[in-house]
Amino acid sequence: MALHRDIFWVGRQWAVTGAGIQAVDQRLRGVFDIEITRLWDDDFVQSRRAKPGVNAADFDNALTLARERFPREPEPDALVAELEALGVIAAPIVSPAVPAMQLRAEGRLARFLPQWRIRR
Q: 110-120: per-residue pLDDT in tens?
């Protein structure tokens, strides 16, 4: 995969881009790339670091810069718990749902219902 158009840092072997950490060598076709969502998955990161031919110092530098650039997002449940503890939220959050459409034509003849047209 080609390097993302937003490049924040380029090392000898690794680059921090808008897609996460990417290998500079494009012949690898994105095999070693790490997406932003997986930057904080330590097992996945260590599996990439343990591959043969990886420049460990450059990889660690790229990982540090990427984690500063893309901080871990708090889990939604933890955020709600924090807000409730601070007293910002008193009632549980209810997701807004679109009410179901109700047809009011039951028991009436269709020819007597008002017609509607789309105006152009």
A: 677 677 766 66
The DSSP string of 53-111 is T--HHHHHHHHHHHHHHSPPPPPHHHHHHHHHHHTS--S------PPPP----TTS-GG
CA geometry: angle at 64 spanning 7 and 21, to 5°? Answer: 40
Are 20 and 33 within 8 A, CB to CB?
Answer: yes
Instruction: Show Cβ contacts of residue 29 under 8 Å, excluding neighbours closer than 6 positions.
Output: 1
The pTM of this model reads: 0.58
d(CA 22, CA 12): 12
Strand order through the sheet with 20-23: 7-10, 14-17, 20-23, 34-35
Q: Of 111 and 39, which is predicted with more confidence?
A: 39
Question: What CA–CA distance (Å, rounded) separates 60 from 83?
Answer: 35
Residue count of the chain, please give it.
Answer: 120
Please, is 7 exposed, middle or buried when counting C-beta atoms within 10 Å of its C-beta (0-12, 13-18, 19+)?
middle
The Cα 73–Cα 71 span in angstroms is: 6
